[in-house]
């Protein structure tokens, strides 16, 4: 009795048992081919349009992020170029021993301003690195997510139900 309910299936060398299909006396009437084809074509176009719009918005967001990073880098380069003449002028000043403390304090002030400018540049570059790393991590997660959404990661019962489903 139990063997009558199960049948062996061989699918390219993969052998498995599945429940026998119940044969209905009356097969369902065939659907109207034209309306189904039109409906399927309309659904396919809608899915394609939705997918393309989603992809477009993702690309636009990414372009905006890269433009922001590029603008930040340009402003940092401009700041660097503005500080470069100050450094060249301070390097040209002779380091002669002087008795006045004003020359020493101005030289010290120039050196401190250079160090502060370099510190700001390093901080800006570090922020840019953090932002680009976050973008890369997000992109990697988006790339991995479809693999985590596969039904193979679900419960074993759902996996077996999916493998044994006759409607596919």
UniProtKB/TrEMBL annotation:
Domain of life the protein comes from: Eukaryota
Composition skew (Low complexity), residue ranges: 93-104
Comp. bias regions, Polar residues: 74-92
Name recorded for this polypeptide: Uncharacterized protein
PANTHER family hit by this protein: CRYPTIC LOCI REGULATOR
Spans annotated as Disordered: 18-51, 74-104
Compositionally biased tracts (Basic residues): 42-51
């Amino acid at each position: 009795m139990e063997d009558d309910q199960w049948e062996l299936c061989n699918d390219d060398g993969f052998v498995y048992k599945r429940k026998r299909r119940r044969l209905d006396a009356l097969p369902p009437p065939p659907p109207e081919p034209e309306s189904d084809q039109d409906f399927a074509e309309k659904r396919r176009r809608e899915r394609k349009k939705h997918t393309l719009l989603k992809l477009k918005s993702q690309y636009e967001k990414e372009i905006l992020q890269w433009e922001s990073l590029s603008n930040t880098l340009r402003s940092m380069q401009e700041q660097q170029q503005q500080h470069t003449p100050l450094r060249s002028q301070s390097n040209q000043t002779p380091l002669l021993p002087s008795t006045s403390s004003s020359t020493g304090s101005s030289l010290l002030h120039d050196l401190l301003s250079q160090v502060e400018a370099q510190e700001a540049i390093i901080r800006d570059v570090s922020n840019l690195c953090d932002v680009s790393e976050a973008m890369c991590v997000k992109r990697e997660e988006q790339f991995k997510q479809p693999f985590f959404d596969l039904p193979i990661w679900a419960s074993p019962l759902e996996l077996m139900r999916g493998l044994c489903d006759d409607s596919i």
